[in-house]
């Protein structure tokens, strides 16, 4: 590892890896510090019992609920590539309207400091970087694309093509999901879904296999694993002077010119709060008192549609979604959200939630079912927040927009029954599922109401950037991974254009 890099990136998830890829070839000496290690290719990577029932890959970590002080094991992962190692590989753009003020039933989704057109070229670059499979022209809410997807969409399996046809008859507009996965390569390793299954470099386009792989081709970019950052130290001039971290039991420091925090919406905020000092008693980058606030986590519910006469022979299933209720409830009312297929749910996966039921019976039910995810926007609230108490992470999540989400689930049930699935059951996801955590270090143009400028640079510290889902002022209602990557590439361009000057 270089002793005095120009830039240190803390975290190798979608934000940090994409930023590093954008900076590769710039001449900057870059060190990436990753708390975890590379995910090993073991049988557990494709074993649903190990993943869902035994929690084999879940971190041995607890966070605390602010409401009652109870401890829970979060579903965040610490591996090279971060949470993207387990994601469903949906790389979808926010809708153009998501960058504007949107009125919801329970409140307002605020405007971003720029509009969709500003990020569009970076979306296109991110789609190339992550080798996205997709198609244009099927989704009425689709924003303008300056170029097509680099690869054709992943094709429906036969059973899923039937489901798509049934939903079209009901007037819906099922459209191909933009996916970062080589389905053929994935299935060659083992015939399993990819959603929530870890990628052992076997077909999923994640932060390691695309972003980091691109970055590490530059000899000026190095990766240090098992490096847990403990705190940032600000100098008297307000710049971040030192990074203090623990590497395999040994405490070390680095003093780069530029510090980029990409540890995720919870951990980035927690690190800034834990780095408070006499000059910054409420934490770093927190003159505005927004660090840790405005935590958002999509409202999500699994909806399983069952037809006793239907046979779901699909392996992965996750190829389409629909946005017919994204901007309205279908009757002139406010937005409800996005619907997309989940990865194929098996009896072994259901067993994790229904432990009393025999696996054979669950397998029989799963074989006649198709599995969807209902996803609605979680609106920003200053009192929905991340706190630190010593070395504890305390989460105070105030769910919002639940009336709209409940209506989305109800509408889905109506549509699925009309499409020939007489039995429809649902199960909300709880706090143990990191359903696209974001906010907490929001960006904006007003230093009194935001922590970062529109290029993710801290208002309070000239050499500090925060490039992960923390920057988002709203959560929209689609998967955020591509937007994080696009903003990271935009930030990289800005850093290069300004010569990394503070």
Draw up the topology in text.
Blueprint: E1 7-10, H1 14-23, E2 30-33, H2 48-53, E3 63-65, E4 71-72, E5 102-104, E6 107-109, H3 116-129, H4 158-169, E7 175-176, H5 183-189, H6 207-215, E8 221-224, E9 227-234, E10 240-247, E11 250-254, E12 258-261, H7 265-274, E13 299-306, E14 320-322, E15 338-341, H8 347-351, H9 359-366, E16 369-376, E17 385-389, E18 392-396, H10 402-418, E19 423-428, E20 464-466, H11 481-497
Parallel strand pairs: 1-2, 1-12, 2-8, 3-18, 12-20
Antiparallel strand pairs: 3-4, 5-6, 7-14, 9-10, 10-11, 13-16, 13-19, 14-15, 15-16, 17-18
**How far is the first residue's CA from the last residue's CA?**
24 Å
Structural class: alpha/beta
CATH class: Alpha Beta
The CATH homologous superfamily is called: FAD/NAD(P)-binding domain
CATH architecture heading: 3-Layer(bba) Sandwich
Main sheet attributes: strand count, strand direction, barrel closure: 6 strands, antiparallel
Gist of the model:
The chain is an alpha/beta fold and about 500 residues long. The chain has eleven helices and 20 strands.
Descriptive overview:
With 502 residues, this protein is α/β, with parallel strands linked by helices. It has one domain: FAD/NAD(P)-binding domain (3-Layer(bba) Sandwich). It has helices at 14-23, 48-53, 116-129, 158-169, 183-189, 207-215, 265-274, 347-351, 359-366, 402-418, 481-497; strands spanning 7-10, 30-33, 63-65, 71-72, 102-104, 107-109, 175-176, 221-224, 227-234, 240-247, 250-254, 258-261, 299-306, 320-322, 338-341, 369-376, 385-389, 392-396, 423-428, 464-466. Strands 7-14-15-16-13-19 form a six-stranded antiparallel beta sheet, with helices on one face. It has a five-stranded parallel beta sheet with strand order 8-2-1-12-20, with no helix packed on it. The protein has a four-stranded mixed beta sheet with strand order 4-3-18-17, covered by helices on one side. Strand 17 (385-389) and strand 18 (392-396) form a beta hairpin. Helix 3 packs across helix 11 (481-497). The model has no long low-confidence stretch (mean pLDDT 96).
């Amino acid at each position: 590892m270089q002793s005095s890099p120009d830039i240190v990136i803390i975290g190798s998830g979608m934000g940090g890896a994409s930023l590093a890829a954008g900076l590769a070839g710039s001449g900057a000496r870059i060190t990436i510090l990753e708390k975890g290690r590379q995910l090993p290719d073991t049988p557990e990577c494709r074993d649903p019992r190990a993943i869902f029932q035994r929690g084999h890959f879940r971190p041995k970590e607890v966070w605390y609920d602010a409401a009652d002080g109870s401890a829970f094991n979060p579903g965040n992962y610490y591996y090279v590539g971060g949470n993207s190692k387990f994601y469903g590989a949906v790389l979808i753009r926010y809708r153009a309207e998501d960058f504007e003020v949107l009125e919801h039933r329970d409140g307002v989704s605020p405007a971003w400091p720029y509009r969709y057109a500003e990020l569009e070229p970076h979306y296109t670059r991110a789609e190339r970087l992550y080798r996205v499979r997709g198609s244009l022209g099927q989704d009425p809410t689709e924003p303008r694309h300056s170029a097509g997807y680099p690869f054709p969409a992943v094709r429906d399996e036969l059973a899923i093509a039937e489901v798509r046809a049934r939903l079209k008859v009901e007037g819906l507009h099922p459209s191909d999901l933009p996916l970062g996965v080589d389905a053929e390569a994935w299935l060659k390793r083992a015939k399993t879904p990819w959603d929530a299954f870890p990628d052992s470099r076997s077909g999923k386009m994640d932060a390691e296999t695309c972003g980091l792989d691109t970055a590490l081709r530059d000899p000026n970019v190095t990766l240090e694993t098992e490096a847990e950052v403990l705190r940032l130290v600000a100098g008297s001039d307000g710049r971040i002077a030192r990074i203090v971290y623990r590497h395999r039991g040994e405490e070390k420091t680095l003093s780069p010119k530029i510090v980029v925090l990409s540890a995720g919406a919870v951990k980035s905020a927690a690190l800034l709060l834990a780095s408070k000092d006499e000059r910054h008693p409420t934490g770093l980058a927190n003159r505005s008192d927004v660090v840790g606030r405005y935590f958002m986590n999509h409202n999500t519910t699994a909806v399983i549609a069952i037809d006793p006469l239907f046979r779901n022979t699909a392996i992965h299933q996750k190829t389409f979604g629909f946005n017919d209720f994204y901007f309205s409830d279908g009757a002139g009312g406010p937005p409800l959200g996005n619907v997309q297929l989940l990865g194929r749910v098996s009896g072994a996966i259901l067993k994790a939630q229904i432990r009393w039921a025999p696996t054979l019976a669950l397998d029989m039910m799963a074989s006649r079912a198709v599995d969807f995810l209902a996803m609605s926007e979680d609106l920003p609230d200053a009192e929905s927040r991340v706190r630190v108490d010593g070395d504890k992470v305390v989460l105070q999540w105030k769910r919002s927009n639940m009336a709209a989400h409940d209506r989305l689930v109800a509408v889905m049930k109506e549509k699925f029954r009309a499409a020939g699935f007489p039995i429809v059951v649902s199960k909300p996801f709880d706090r143990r599922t990191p359903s696209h955590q974001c906010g907490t270090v929001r960006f904006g143009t007003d230093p009194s109401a935001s922590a970062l400028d529109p290029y993710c640079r801290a208002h309070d510290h000239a050499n500090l950037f925060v490039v992960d889902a923390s920057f988002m002022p709203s959560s929209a209602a689609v998967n955020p991974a591509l937007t994080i990557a696009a903003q990271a590439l935009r930030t990289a361009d800005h850093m290069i254009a300004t010569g990394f000057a503070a």
